[in-house]
Specification:
Structural class: alpha+beta
Helix content: 10-25%
Distance between the termini: 18 Å
Largest sheet: 3 strands, antiparallel
Radius of gyration: 13 Å
Number of helices: 1
Shape: globular
Oligomer: single chain
Strand content: 15-25%
Strand order of the largest sheet: 1-2-3
């Protein structure tokens, strides 16, 4: 629909991300492996969706409404 959507994937395993900044990601595209960075108690993924590039939204609800698997 032409809307700018950014996604953030944080706490990834160092060296496991095969993407470059600004690269488009499609359903099923590997973005890296879950790791443990920062002040965390175990491996996990911090995933965010930002609409219009800046407005945070519930990633599960947004994906459920936009992506058909």
């Amino acid at each position: 629909d032409g809307q700018i959507v950014r996604s953030w994937y944080k706490h990834m395993l160092d060296g496991s991300v095969p993407l470059t900044l600004g690269e488009s990601v499609r359903v099923g595209h590997t973005v890296g492996q879950v790791g443990q960075t920062g002040l965390s108690t175990g491996p996990h993924l911090h995933f965010e969706i930002l609409l219009d590039g800046t407005t945070t939204t519930d990633p599960y609800a947004w994906l459920k409404s936009k992506v058909s698997l």
